[in-house]
Amino acid sequence: MQSAFIRDLTEDVLKRAGLRPGMRVLDIGCGVGDVALLAGELVGPTGSVLGVDRSAASIKTAERRVAQARQHARIRLAVADLDSFVPDETFDAVVGRLVLMYLPDPAATLRRLASHLRPGGILVFQELSMPSIRSVPDTPQFLQCKSWIMETFERTGFETDMGGKLFATFLTAGLPGPQMISAGRAEGGHRSLIYAYMAATMQSLLSAMERAGVTTADEVGIDDLAERLLFMAYGFIEQLPPIFLLHAILLPINVVRLIQVRNPGLLRKSRMIFLGEQRR
Ligand SMILES: C[S@@+](CC[C@H](N)C(=O)[O-])C[C@H]1O[C@@H](n2cnc3c(N)ncnc32)[C@H](O)[C@@H]1O
Description:
It is a single chain. The chain is α/β, with parallel strands linked by helices. The protein has ten helices and eight strands. α3 (56-68) links the parallel β2 and β3. It is globular. Bound molecules: S-adenosylmethionine (SAM). Residues 3, 29-31, 34-35, 53-55, 58, 81-83, 97-99, 102-103 line the site of S-adenosylmethionine.
């Protein structure tokens, strides 16, 4: 469901970054293959995509989906842990979505992978900025879900504001400052899937929440959570004038960053310029 919500944002980012037919692309933390499949469409039959993920189960699912999409000639998949993964080839682009947030040292991974880019290659990453998630106006249920989700990620040791930290992470990796954009979805209305999406996110995190001691299944009331989120936003509509119908949720994929680094071959020169500017 998440992937369907953000597919168009990812496609836009990959196109803006310059993914085009014939390119060789590495997709890190590819999961069940959504970004790899998208990249496969953009690079076409003359290009290639290598997707890597540490989850063997996800790679298996991705392989099935790639075969179904008839992209097996251009997309390869492999189980690998990014903490130690060293490719034995070079790429025109390294891409990743919602993956740096899980890495203990994302700058080190970026530094290692950037050295496998051909000169002029591009790095493209999309990461969340969870603190930016908003509901307008706020509803208690929405705020509670947001707080449970963020607390679970924090207690598990994952970064909740990777989107906000991308720029600094690139500099820490010794890369030039990236170009960035911020984008997201704003959703509302009775027919919006956003309430079901929030409930599905809660469902997928429920056991992690319980393990981390954040909340319990009983407290969350997962079975009718989507209905309650919707009801709090719209349940009181009959008593209020129409203007109050305007409830919106700015989706959890609220901030997406585009990172594009051109000419990593000029890295040393870029860093000298950076230091030179600092001295002035
Ligand atoms: C939220 S999913 C994103 C999947 C995919 N990029 C997408 O956007 O659809 C995060 C993925 O990163 C993978 N991952 C996390 N840490 C990893 C690591 N150290 N090495 C390889 N994969 C990792 C997980 O297994 C998971 O599939």
